[in-house]
Specification:
The chain has two helices and four strands, in the order αββββα. With 110 residues, the protein is α+β, with helices and mostly antiparallel strands. Strands 1-2-3-4 form a four-stranded antiparallel β-sheet, with no helix packed on it.
């Protein structure tokens, strides 16, 4: 079944898209072709480009089986704008990657 849970990747809610989606191209023996209502925000491959405003995007999945167009599914999502300040999780991750830093000071003589 083609639902948000199938394509969400790291995104928790369809109203809070912040990262790329997993627009699968097949499910069992069914071929899936995706079309985005705003390909500059979410490409037909699921690549998300966040801007300065929240944007609603309709993803349409066309399901075909043996060259027969079987069904069309629409999933509406909202891509959130880029925040000006980093999120606490991002700061924490960056800080956790800084370790074992050595400083040395050399005296200079004049």
């Amino acid at each position: 079944k083609v639902t948000f849970d199938l394509i969400k990747r790291d995104n928790l809610k369809p109203t809070e898209i912040k990262s790329n989606l997993n627009l699968v191209t097949s499910l069992d023996e069914v071929k899936i072709t995706w079309t985005s209502s705003k390909p500059e925000v979410i490409s037909n491959l699921g690549v998300v480009t966040r801007g300065t405003e929240d944007v609603e995007v309709i993803l349409t999945a066309k399901l075909t089986h043996d060259d027969y167009e079987w069904k069309e599914v629409k999933i509406t999502v909202k891509v959130l704008k880029v925040e000006s300040d980093p999120e606490p999780e991002v700061i924490e991750k960056q800080l956790s990657e800084i370790h074992d830093v050595e400083f040395s000071v050399s005296p200079t003589f004049e």
